[in-house]
Write a structure and sequence with these properties.
- The chain is an alpha/beta fold and 450 residues long.
- The longest helix is centred in the C-terminal third of the chain and has 24 residues.
- The chain has 14 helices and 17 strands.
- 52% of the residues are buried.
- The structure holds pyridoxal-5'-phosphate.
- Keywords: Cytoplasm, Isomerase, Porphyrin biosynthesis, Pyridoxal phosphate.
- It comes from Quadrisphaera granulorum.
Length: 450
């Protein structure tokens, strides 16, 4: 494949906006993946969105499979969420005192996820993971954080790190601006690799504060935990006196009422620690995206005895001017209240239809690919290698994806502009929207094969 973007649909208004944006915003965007660097061409500026549709500045309407990178599980502009936002805004925008909305949202989270006893609301997933790590370090009195290559937990300095030279050696900064010191207490291991995990714990176990993992990975494409992986994380952390932080910013309240935990966590397993059969319950969770319904709300929480170490109850400092913001909390609560069993069933069905059709279309054109699936999250890997971790995810043909992406865009479907991202469906994807996707896929598969 040439990987040359086709850009058949003219986008003069988006181009003009991108030119203006580039004069005042680095790279023309406020978050890098929006800039189309991985696929080439001009990012489409959204003028408005409704249900499953994005309308760009040139008036072109497309089916949205980005879903604001996760939050829009009900589709854009859900009437009940809009009403909740307006009603909250009429009472004020931000108080700086406690208010009922944040209590209601916290109660909803705790009711949905059994091991979640206490939560702290924050404003972004990055804040949630950063704060959860600080709490884990404060609680255990230990410095080391274990993360997995290809898992993204936001732009926390200590987590913008890649593996050092050996499995049990410390990490190196992944970007300028992160000091070697910030990465020096981070261990980066391959995802789904139990022997590497055991080796790291054998060498460093008594200095490890926590393991942070994506419950099911969605930021190297979708890579679910292999059978036994989550149990191994729990077993190793328990044995060493470290905490397990399950990052459900992307999966939380999307894959089920209780996120990935609701799918896998309720399994009862014997970890061999003498405690008998137990749920696969992490010590801490992080959430964001769906729980804010498109507004800046996120959370971390878990065991009450751990959360008791958080200020003002305990000594570990954490704070935020806009934490528990009443308008954003109302949006999150209304979104979760409308995430019913029917909603999850519809999202599951839409995702299954689209991923099966994508695979069939690519197979018909002989394009090497594999699907990564975790509940209703999925991605298409442009490789025929079995993808289990970041190294295998990186065997993809990015050029084939770029051609596929632009053909989809021309045919009225906005995919995430990178082959390392999940495709996000919503309950608002009705048959009209799904049919647009189904008609686009064979055309795009031909482009990917070219
Ligand atoms: N954790 C995961 C698993 C994510 O997918 C993301 C964002 O994509 C984050 C954390 C960071 O969240 P935010 O972008 O809200 O800071």
């Amino acid at each position: 494949s040439t990987g040359v973007p086709s850009d058949l649909t003219p986008a003069p208004a988006s181009q003009a906006l991108f030119d203006r944006a580039s004069a005042v915003l680095p790279g023309g965007v406020n978050s890098p993946v929006r800039a189309f660097r991985a696929v080439g061409g001009t990012p489409r500026f959204t003028a408005s969105a409704s249900g499953p549709w994005l309308t760009d500045a040139d008036g072109v309407r497309r089916v949205d499979l980005i879903g604001s990178w996760g939050p829009m599980i009900l589709g854009h502009g859900h009437p009940a969420v809009r009403e909740a936002v307006v009603a909250a805004a009429e009472k004020g925008f931000s108080f700086g005192t406690p208010s009922e909305g944040e209590v209601l949202l916290a109660e909803e989270l705790v009711a949905r996820v059994e091991p979640l006893e206490k939560v702290r609301l924050v404003s972004s997933g990055t804040e949630a993971t950063m704060s959860a790590i600080r709490l884990a370090r404060g609680f255990t009195g230990r410095p080391v954080v274990v993360k997995f290559a290809g898992c993204y937990h936001g732009h926390v300095d200590a987590l913008l790190a890649s593996a050092g030279s050996g499995l049990a050696t410390f990490a190196l900064p992944d970007t300028p601006g992160v000091t070697p010191e910030s990465a020096a207490e981070t261990l980066v291991l391959p995802f789904n690799d139990v022997p590497a995990l055991e080796q790291a714990f054998a060498v460093h176990g008594d200095r490890i504060a926590c393991v942070i993992t994506e419950a099911a990975a969605g930021n190297m494409g979708v890579v679910p935990p292999a059978p036994g992986w989550t149990a191994a994380l729990l077993r190793e952390t328990r044995r060493a006196g470290a905490l397990l932080i399950s990052d459900e910013v992307m999966t939380g309240f999307r894959l089920s009422r209780a996120g990935w935990f609701g799918l896998e966590g309720r399994q009862r397993v014997d970890l061999g620690d003498g405690a008998g059969e137990q749920a696969l319950a992490p010590d801490l969770f992080t959430f964001g995206k769906v729980m804010g319904g498109g507004f800046p709300v996120a959370a971390f929480g878990g065991r009450a005895d751990v959360m008791a170490h958080l200020a003002p109850a305990g000594p570990v400092y954490q704070a935020g001017t806009l934490s528990g913001n009443p308008v954003a909390s109302a949006a999150g609560l209304a979104t979760l209240q409308h995430c019913t069993d029917e909603v999850y069933a519809r999202v599951d069905a839409v995702a299954a239809t689209i991923r099966d059709a994508a695979s069939a279309a690519l197979a018909a054109e002989g394009v090497p690919h594999t699907l990564g699936v975790a509940g209703s999250m999925f991605s298409v890997f442009f490789t025929d290698v079995d993808v289990v971790d970041y190294d295998t995810a990186r065997t993809q043909d990015a050029g084939a994806f770029a051609a596929f992406f632009h053909a989809m865009l021309d045919a009225g479907v906005h995919l995430p502009p990178s082959c390392y991202e999940s495709w996000f469906c919503s309950a608002s994807h009705d048959d009209d929207a799904v049919n647009v996707v189904l008609e686009a896929l064979p055309v795009a598969a031909r482009a990917a094969a070219a």
